[in-house]
Amino acid sequence: MQAIHTALIKIDTSHYWIKRDKVIQKIVHNGKTFFDKFEKINEPLSSKIIREHEAGKITVAHSLINKSDKVENIVIDYNGRNTQRFWHRAQLLLREEGYINFTAYESKTPGHLHLYIHKGHTTLQEGYQIAKLISMKLSQKMPKEWKVFPDSDIPREFNILTLPYKVYNKERGASWSKHM
User: What span, in angstroms and rounded, lies between the C-alpha atoms of 63 and 106?
Assistant: First the structure.
């Protein structure tokens, strides 16, 4: 993936997470048990690591919550079967809600997307609320085949996403907004 595309999602490169073949830790959160296979590496995310991820040698994830409890992106992790329909519906909803900067990336699994809504410095609590609101509104239009991040129902260590592989589609303050 080109550096310009990762710059769009403002990844916190101070650390990264790498997937292991074994369970690293067991976390109990809100009465549920989570088994974590991602290990936090407290080293800067380098282009070498990103290239290894792209080549499929390792699986690398990045944190969605930074050290100051802020989020730069609200992310919809779409795991359904109809990518084009989801993109179209999500694009219309996000425009209607006033979001003009968002990018969909292909994940490792064909047909699955990570839709990054570029929100900028948002408090964690506001990020939780926005994510739930967008998910709720989207679920009124189509069957729920996604998960939103950040998510308060999972431990903080699980608010991570694997690095995207390729841009699917993007919206950048398009010319349509002047007609609204």
Answer: 18
